[in-house]
Amino acid sequence: MLIACRHSIQNNMNILILLVITMFVITAGYVGYHASQNQPVKETKGHGMEFETLDVEESIQTLQSLRLDKSYA
What tens digit of pLDDT does each residue of 37-56 get? Predict the structure, then answer.
């Protein structure tokens, strides 16, 4: 009786593992399909972020002056 009970529990665990794996495969397929169907957005609007160009020479001078300031501290 005890051996039959263990066998039944093992079968239930195998079925549960199979269901979980199946769920992941179906979800991955669903998400992958819908991700491949959506067209990428070419314009981004409404973020209001402004980017300023950095002058390399100015950045180098700023870094050098900061380094000099720290060396005297």
Answer: 876 656 656 566 666 666 67
Kindly report whether the global pTM for this prediction surpasses the value 0.85.
no
Distances (CA, A) of 23 to 14, 17, 20, 31, 38: 14, 10, 5, 12, 23
Rounded Cα gap, residues 32 and 51, in angstroms: 34
Cα separation, 30 vs 34, in Å, equals: 6
* 18 vs 37, higher pLDDT: 18
Q: Tell me the helix, strand and coil percentages in the chain, rounded to 5.
A: 75, 0, 25
| Dist. CA 27–CA 57, nearest whole Å | 52
